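Continuing the series of single-chain predictions for the mutant panel. This is the parent chain; the variants come on the following pages.
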Amino acid sequence: MLLEMGVAAEEMIGDGIAALVRQNTELADAVLERDNIVDRMEQEVELHCLRLLSRKVASGSELRHITSALRVATDIERIADHAVDIAQAAKRLSVEAIYKPLVDIPHLGELAQNMLRLTLDAFVRRDRKQAPILIASDDEADALYKHMRGELKSTLESDPHAVSQAIYLLFVAYYLERICDHCTNIAERVGDA
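Parent structure:
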């Protein structure tokens, strides 16, 4: 169930970025509509975990795995919420040509999608060797976000016509950085699983 949830969230990220780059409001709307699906999946994971906890006396490792799964479901749901935020920004930015080609945002989006896919795979397989590698990969996302933030700040200071767009793009960059942080949370739980 967690992998299914993760795939849905990963697709939402990709489609949110594509909607932004292509200025495609229909694709952005499709992302918004899928948020309810991920929300329902989170509820199903929670119910399943609660049933597991109520049916038998679990060992310490089973309890850790079940509680970790609950937390991972919450992280995935928040990732999907950030994908919705990106889609909403894409809709707002669709009304006029964006002042510059978008290169760094799609790159950060790819990093976020890869982190999500790899961290969930490591969590489900309980691959503790991958956890530190995945946690360290957040450094690349942080560096790219810092670079983008500086560039967008410079735009805010120098181009009054691009201020509104730069603010939305800054939010999108922030949402992607937060997605990577949620992936780091998942990676940190691999050791608890």
